[in-house]
Amino acid sequence: MQRKNAVGLSLLAVAFAFVLPLVLSGAPAESREVPELTPPAVTAAAPTPDPTPTPAPEPVLDAATPLRLHTESGDTETTMADYLPHALAGEMPAAFEPEALRAQAVALRTYALYYRNAPKAQHPDADVCTSSACCTACADEAELRERWGADYDDYWARVCAAVAATDGQYLVWEDAPALAVFHASSYRRTEAAADLGMAQPYLASVDSPETAEEVRNLNTTVEVSADDFRAEVLAAVPDADLSGSAEGWVGAVTLNAAGRVAQVVIGGRAVSGLALRQMFSLRSTDFTLAWSDGAFHFRVSGYGHGLGLSQYGANLLARDGYDYAEILAHYYPGTELVMAVLEW
């Protein structure tokens, strides 16, 4: 009797061992469709499991990512692998810290993917262009050899290594590539997209570590005569009252949450900080404006629009031990660093 019970328990254990892997290997419930249940007419034998394993998803690497590039000579088909090293070399000093170069490589890849989904009106048949005024700078070999001289081989290797180390990686927001814009430098804080009328919450104002001691030309000045100031302002704001003494032309200055100039009252009219930056070729909207010694003086901090990754800030963070993923998380809060995959 004991032997019969032992045999029975053994058979039960074997059956349990056979069924248990089937139970545990199923996909999560939320990822499967629930079939309509109909009672079978007759009891059928359980199907035999397919012994062939399901292939794992394959990553989509740069060499397999097509890219339409607009150049001065027209549109051309290329790949992300061919484009990125030249874009990275054109946008960031190759002598920067490796982790800063990697962060910039991811930002460039993400930017290109963003506009592949929504091409710009300036080049509707291309994803990105080689103009820094529109998309990103893109330096060819001849330009880089002239710029880098004897350091060409070393610097090119550094750039290519940064691209290879992040192959296929990009930032997403709500399951789509983020608008990973970037700029040269910020003083104290970066700009917030909301202050420029943009809707990307991950382009928030965050601390940036640049100082005048660490970044050359972080602070600059622009001097403008009264006549030139009047001419530029009236060309943009014809109804501004610039009569009387020049020292009375400038009124209240309004700053945004990041400490940058939102607007300045000039001749009784509000003029945006962005408009003043364009009028007088200022390096950023982080400036002060004053009349002294017979001229207007702009004192400017940082360089660029101030949105997203600060290149010099990223370099300082990398020098302090941050890796590229941490740098990206700092300058694009709320985004996720991912790699696209091909599903079988």
Concise description?
The chain has 344 residues and is of the alpha+beta class. Helices cover 33% and strands 21% of the residues. It has helices spanning 2-24, 80-91, 98-117, 141-148, 152-165, 226-236, 273-279, 311-319, 324-331; strands at residues 58-59, 66-71, 74-79, 128-129, 169-173, 176-177, 182-183, 188-189, 207-208, 219-225, 250-255, 261-266, 269-272, 287-292, 295-301, 309-310, 336-339, 341-342.
Helicity range: 25-40%
Strand content: 15-25%
Order of helical and strand elements: HEEEHHEHHEEEEEEHEEEHEEEHHEE
End-to-end gap: 54 Å
Q: Number of helical segments?
A: 9
Annotation, overall tally of beta strands: 18
Write the layout of secondary structure elements.
Layout: H1 2-24, E1 58-59, E2 66-71, E3 74-79, H2 80-91, H3 98-117, E4 128-129, H4 141-148, H5 152-165, E5 169-173, E6 176-177, E7 182-183, E8 188-189, E9 207-208, E10 219-225, H6 226-236, E11 250-255, E12 261-266, E13 269-272, H7 273-279, E14 287-292, E15 295-301, E16 309-310, H8 311-319, H9 324-331, E17 336-339, E18 341-342
Helix pairs in contact: 2-3, 2-5, 3-5, 3-8, 3-9
Structure characteristics:
344 residues, alpha+beta, three-stranded mixed sheet, three-stranded antiparallel sheet, 9 helices, 21% strand
Describe this structure in words.
The structure is a single chain. With 344 residues, this protein is an alpha+beta fold. Helix 2 (80-91) packs across helix 3 and helix 3 crosses helix 5. It starts with a helix and ends with a strand. Strand 14 (287-292) and strand 15 (295-301) form a beta hairpin. The strands form 7 sheets. The protein has a 3-stranded mixed sheet with strand order 3-2-4. The protein is elongated. The chain has 9 helices and 18 strands.
